[in-house]
Fold each of these.
Amino acid sequence: MTIEDIPRETLTGALRRGAVKKHVAAIHVSGKLTLLQRKLSNVLLLNAYDMLGEQAQFQIDARTLALMVGYNSNDIDTLKASLRGLAETVAEWDMLDEKGRQEWGVSALLSFATLKEGVCTYAYSPALAEKLRDPKVFALINLNIQRRFTSGYALALYENCYRFVRTGSTGWWPLETFRRLMGVEGSAYYETFKHLNAKIIKPAVAEVNKTSNIVVTPETRKRGRVVTEIRFLIEKNPQLGILDLDDGEGLRHAPVYERLRGMGVSDRLARQWLKEHGEGAVAEKLDYVAGQGGVRHPARYLAAALREDYTPEAPAESAAPTSERAQRLKRIADVVARRSPTQRDADRRLFLSRLDGAARDDFERHGWMSAMNHRAIHAFWSELFPEEMAEG
């Protein structure tokens, strides 16, 4: 896989793109990480990626970090333990440099990490940072997908298989290599293939196939009666796309979806509106547009009604926001104003990573005042600061 294989929209920012280029060397040595540590490692790398080689330290808001790894908790002790684990885990690489010379190296995954006043500051060693930013050999790890994993073994298998998706197979791995990738080398129990298969391979394969955008099938080779090698055949999961994990299949059965399609709204846009605004709000705006009479381009008018929150009291000419929405905007502005520049940047990039299409464009133009995204924006800040964003 080369950098040209990655959709261009995933290469125009760091946290906003929701995917991280993870170097093969790092993937191959992180088998012993817990599920939380593995997710944390990916998010930290995504946050730092664009500036690797240009700055020595990186920062991310600790609460944002917790949200991105799906760890909605104020248990700072667990976060500290996970960061400590990354600092204590050794990365090892053995690869060819740009001149074709063999290079071996070793480094801690993080050279240090601190938590102070709600901000996590961390760094990579210069040697590891150089390897992590190398675009020639990497896997694309989608953060929306990784959040769904519940097993560290399954996420490790996904990471090590996904980079071979274009070739269709991992190639044959000696079982010793596979055990190392899964982080169970040195375990006498897993020296027996029956145990390895029952406890590691089968459950991990089942979760990858259910959770991710690929389907993997294990095959083994024997020497005599003993299994000595394993490989995984890889296909794209037709049910899950890498940048559209939830394809909204269920939304197609909603009566409102049929009304949208009958108006001439495309399938993708209809599902996007239903996900962004909810069936009730879309139905309300459909009724509003139908009540205007003589509208030449009803789909365009509906888009404006959803974006500007048209109501019978606030028609297209005024498009005035409701008092409730105005109050929400004030609360959002107050919370944003109290954030540090580093936190504001992390907040913005985290929210952008959840958007695509017209919703992303509108947020990039209007920021936290984006009318198209106002419900999602309110939900985002309510998740971070429930007390400050409470109604009433």
Note: Residues 323-384 form one domain.
Amino acid sequence: MKSSSVQLCRQKGAIAVMTGITIVVLIGIAGLVLDLAHLYIVKTELQNAADACALSAARELSTINGSTVMRATSAGITAGQRNRVDFQSAVPDIQDADITFGANLDADANGKLLNFTRSADKNTQYVRCAPHETQAMSVMTWFMRALGKYESSMTAEATAKYPKAAPYCGVPLAVCTKNVAAANMNFEVGKWYSGRLEAGTAEQGNYGWIRFPNQDTGTDALSEIIAGDGQCDLSSATVVFQNTGVSNGAAKAWNTRFGLYGSPYKKDAANMTAYKPDQTGWSYQNPVEGGVYDDFVSRHDNHVSYDPANIIDSKGKPVDYPGTPAIASHSDLVTYGSDRRMVSMPIIDCDSWSAKKEMPVVGWACSLMVAPMEDANGQIRLEFRGIVGNGCGGAGGGVVGFPKLVR
């Protein structure tokens, strides 16, 4: 009996010991999970910074000259550093050497890109951004240091491509210039132009509906070319004609590019496939100094849909567009969206506007559609972005494209 009592006495406290050991193990596991989560979040944040850096730098490849590398580097660093890291507590240290340029994606057996340098020429179409490529970002651990692991290194890289030869199609809308020989034909990049073309009183930047050679006449033909691809064969478009057959159908067709689908353009898969919206429907009511293009690109990249409250009438109410259109959602823009609001249009001399004569095309302007139309005679708002082939497109023709991440 005495032996049994001694044995029981020796077993006292065993559970406490096991509990203590279990608690230590559980705390260790919890610490490991927290540290790994911390590292994962920092890695994601650093990758976001690399993505933004590469995309912004690639946009500067629209014009290749002696300042391209400097402009792209500055744009990449600025955009990348807006994405803070380590729970938004630190700015990623992106250096000039972290941004490199290449003409192709040739890589070695380990996937490392070859032929990327700190120079750009006419063949350059890729930008690689690798924050801390030579000095990885060190992230302090919280619990793993108990195992001797005080910090862990994080790296990230992104490569973006600029579409050097994006095809362009003309829209049946002419813009006029008062000075054909001036730089950019007297247009100012970033400035909004509007106003109707009137014979004898046209001002710089006024717009008017036109008909291309061989284009069918009538309101349906005009609407179809606006909602559709546009006039893609421009080889014969050396002259244009005033188009007098304009109805609200033109405004409805114009608005599909903003993801606004009203009768006869019903918002369904068939129409959004045939008459694609842009990748963002976000609209602008008032111009800003330097233009809204950069903001537009950001919303384009994120597929931001049209917001009725963003465009208001003189009474402070959302504008009621023709056809009572339904709005393409974010997911619709992801599925069906394309680059539809950077448009190319013929430039004519302001003094040549006439309903009876052929009007010579003196150039092609790239413009950003900034807002839907209220009706066929309503205000048309466009932001001038450049002359095709002169900072607005490649030598083979093409409007400003949007960089895409390729790896």
Note: Confidence is low (pLDDT under 50) at residues 393-399.
Amino acid sequence: MAVETVAIVGAGMAGLTAALAFARHGITCDIFEQAPSLQEVGAGLQLSPNASRVLSKLGVLGDLERLWTEPDEVQLVSGRSLQRRAYVPSGRFARERWGSPYGVLHRATLQDALLHAVNANPLCTLRLGSKIGSAVRDELAEISGRHHDLIVASDGVWSGIRSAIPKNPEAVFSNSVAWRFMVSKSEAPSWLKPNAVNAFLGPSAHIVAYPLKEKDSFNIVAIASGGNTGNRWNTEASAAQKDLLLRHFRGWHPSIAETLAASEKPTFWPLYQVTPGRWHNGRDLVLIGDAAHAMLPFAAQGAAMAIEDAFILANRVAALPSLAQALSAYETERAGRVAKVRARGEFNRFAYHARGPLKLGRNFVLSMRPPQSLAADLDWLYGFDAE
């Protein structure tokens, strides 16, 4: 084995998963996180079978299953009429067809499960309050007291370490924004279904809603075009940004419009994506997750791709005779899959936001597709086994 110690910069989902994946192969990991504590951030999260399969191999899926919801179906619904256009069965169907469950949960639930597993693993050391500057390798060694064979940058879409890689990817604003908020189940309107992930489609905008059992609430994400507010996310929407939300969804079904108007303190998220580029320096530095390939949420695969990255990188590093070979194999393998997932997201964006004749054509095609046929289109994505 070419690697004995790994430094992981960033203790988000990608970083914590990577630590567990490397430890699975007997590799010692130091995880460096600049925050003094891991706070509850974000909102809901969808974990498709390709991701839950990895989490099962890492021993954390059981903790999630006790808290999450496995929806009966994922359905596409008209945002104006509330008429269902199509659906894909989930729940038991997902377990049987793709061999692993499809769950929805709060991001903090996944973070807590990963953190618990990392803290319990003697090969993993989490070092909070560790801000890493430009002298990356020296600073990591000074904090931890040892030099690392490999540095894994899992520090997100605005990665500070990415610049050390020639021809690295760049973060760019997508011209889309997301408003996120939760509605308690006790106050939920009838259009929020407790047993489903619902995507409500409309011209140039859409809404995704699903239950969060551990919060006794529904997670709601509304996505449309919007302005850039800089390298910030999860900030409370200003009055002007809340007004922009209502303008984008004017003309939708009255019950949806009323829920958006009544939303309290929605957060405003400019959506960034990362351009293609190199993911490693050929020697000892590699990118995973959003640092490598942040994508728009139209396929609900951002977290899943980060989880797959972490697992496959550790497997390649453990199996191949040299680190250079492992990094090259990882990038080649992952870049192809990420490109395919990104293309699926762009297709969904086109379909979800269709208007005029394109919308009529979309509705006709969906009406002709039975649920089993739509599920088959996802076999390559949800049936993927990162092992």
Note: The two ends are 18 Å apart (CA to CA).
